[in-house]
Amino acid sequence: MESYLQRLEELYPEMIDIRRHFHQYPELSFQEVNTPEKIAQYLTELGIEVRTGVGGRGVVGTIYGGKLGKTVALRADFDALPIQDEKDVPYKSTIPGVMHACGHDAHTSTLLAVAKVFSERKDELQGNLVLIHQFAEEITPGGAKPMIEDGCLDGVDAIFSTHVWSPIPVGQIGYRSGPTMAAADRFEIDIIGKGGHGASPHTTVDPIAIGISIVQQLQQIVSRRVDPLKPAVLTVAAFNAGNMFNVIPSTAKITGTVRTFDVEVQDEIIAHMEKIIASNCENAGATFHFNYQKGYPAVINSERETEIVATVAASLVGKENTFEMPANMIGEDFSYYLQKVPGTMFFTGAGNIEKGIDYPHHHGKFDIDEKSMLIAAKVLVAATLDYLNNNE
What phi, psi does 349 have (nearest 5°)? Predict the structure, then answer.
């Protein structure tokens, strides 16, 4: 093990260079061209078997070990976000309005370093390693599902992944077994009333008044209809109607998101939403369109694979620097992989207040302490070896 970790230390400057290249040249979800091309070239030059265009824009590398054994998959995503990079750093994004504001550039660099280490010692490997470089994590329906349908998990026995996490200080590792990240859904409610003059509201069917009532009642679903021991979030994020001070509009639009871990709770919330919307519109003489889109399912980490991460992480950074994460209401399409094979996603601390690296994910000044990549790589390597060497 020690020789693997030492090799990662040697590769750390290269990891930084690769990460900063991707940070300077980000590509949006479903628009990735140069990023997967560079990933494929890097893996090919290592002598790794490479498939491109997996599920659309994904790249999958396979390292065949010199000894018979199980197959582990490691996954990293590589898409960016439509956010303007506001940082004053040499590696600032060169693409206006696009940046890596969630750490996917670091995920990619980390996995490429792991690939190099294992490719150099593949004869010692007791089993096989599948390197999944995924496109389009940030936008539903995401890249995980089509990549799985295109065979990226064929023959895989377990999967590991990490997410660099700026709210956690660099040097710490968070893990969690069971429900970890929520199902992330979105909804749109269009209320169709009857517009008119603001001085004559009695001649109208006011969609604003109807919408206000709907919003107020939606807020009571989680507090009064859902079991308080089962986490759920219903957020109305936008209410758009009208643009004149003296005109009642004909329509109003409400949009928002629902986050759950339990499918029954998810279905219960949808049913209550439909009743509230229908009854309010019917009572007021309005009609409506209700569009509910189920997004990524919840991330449910497997117990055994999470225990492996917790154990190896403690040996690498010290037990005092590892902890069980609380469940998070943010969505992640890593959930699709976990529906097919056991595995876990852990969180690698990437924040550093002393360096001013304390902005949240999806912020224009988001950055990471790059030491997090080295730590993440070590945990991924150690977890892979632990799984393969103890699953004859």
Answer: -55, 135
The residue with tokens 């009333």 is: 193
pLDDT value at residue 65: 97
Facing residues of 189 across strands?
254, 290
Q: Which of 32, 79, 185, 333 is labelled catalytic?
A: 79
Residue of 178, 156, 181, 175 lying closest to 311 (CA atoms): 175
Catalytic residue among 27, 77, 85, 137: 137
Secondary structure in 3-state letters for the chain: CHHHHHHHHHHHHHHHHHHHHHHHCCCECCCCCHHHHHHHHHHHHCCCEEEEEECCCEEEEEEECCEEEEEEEEEEECCEECCCCCCCCCCCCCCCCCECCCCHHHHHHHHHHHHHHHHHCHHHCEEEEEEEEECCCCCCCCCHHHHHHCCCCCCCCEEEEEEEEEEEECCCEEECCEEEECEEEEEEEEEECECEECCCHHHCECHHHHHHHHHHHHHHHHHHCCCCCCCEEEEEEEEECCCCCCEECCEEEEEEEEEECCHHHHHHHHHHHHHHHHHHHHHHCCEEEEEEECCCCCEEECHHHHHHHHHHHHHHHCHHHEEECCCECCCCCCHHHHCCCCEEEEEEEEEEHHHCECCCCCCCCCCCCCHHHHHHHHHHHHHHHHHHHCCC
- The CATH code of domain 183-293 reads 3.30.70.360
**The overall pTM is greater than 0.90:** yes
What residues does each domain of the chain span? 2-181+299-389, 183-293
Write the pLDDT tens digit of every residue in 356-392. Answer: 999 999 999 999 999 999 999 999 999 999 999 997 5
The predicted structure's pLDDT at residue 391? 72
Per residue in 215-257, pLDDT tens?
Answer: 999 999 999 999 999 999 999 999 999 999 999 999 999 999 9
Instruction: Please give the mean pLDDT across all residues of the chain.
Output: 97
Whether 27 is catalytic is no
Give yes or no: 137 in active site.
yes
CATH architecture of structural domain 2-181+299-389: 3-Layer(aba) Sandwich (3.40)
